[in-house]
Write a structure and sequence with these properties.
Elements (H helix, E strand, L loop, with lengths): L7 H34 L2 H36 L7 H7 L3 H46 L6 E4 L5 E4 L10
Antiparallel strand pairs: 1-2
Helix pairs in contact: 1-2, 1-4
Length: 171
Amino acid sequence: MNGLVLNDADADLLRAHFNEEESMQQDLDEALDALEDLVVRNDLDGLHRRLEMVGPLLGRLETLVRRRERVVGRFAARLGVSAGPGLAASLLAALPVGRRDELSGIHRSLMDRTGGVQGKNRRLRVIVGELARLNREMVRAAFGLDHAQTTYDRGGRTREEGNLAIMDRRI
C-alpha cells in the first residue's frame, strides 16, 4: 500500500456514500416486504402500483453503487491496491486511525443490510415461482388438461387429444 493513507475528507466522502447507499437499501428492504405481502395476498393492483415505485428506486440504487465504485476505484488507484477481494479492508486500513472504527462499522452495517435485501429478494423469487406453478396447476385442473379432451375440427367431427398445453400455446 506504499504507506499512503486516506485523509479525513476521503473518510467523509466514503461515509456519505456508505450512508446514502444504506438508506437506499433500507428503502428497498421495505419495498420487498411490501411486495411480498402483496404477492401473498394476491393483490395485483397493489402489486402493479408498488412495482412502478420500485423501478426508479432500483435505478437510483444502481447509480449510487456506480458512484461509490468510482470513488473507491480512485482511492484504490491512489493507494496502489487492486479492486477485488480485500479492497474494503485495504481502504479501511488506509483511513486515519480515528476514523477506521467508525467507517468499519458503517461498512459492516451496509454489507449486512445488502445481504438482508438479497435474502429477501431470493425469498420473494421463490414465492413468486411457487405461485406461478400453483396457478398453472390450477388452470390445468380447471380445464381438465391432465386427461384426454374431446375437441372438434371445423367440420364438427370429434377427435381425442391428450394433454393440450393451453398455457404453452401462442395466441
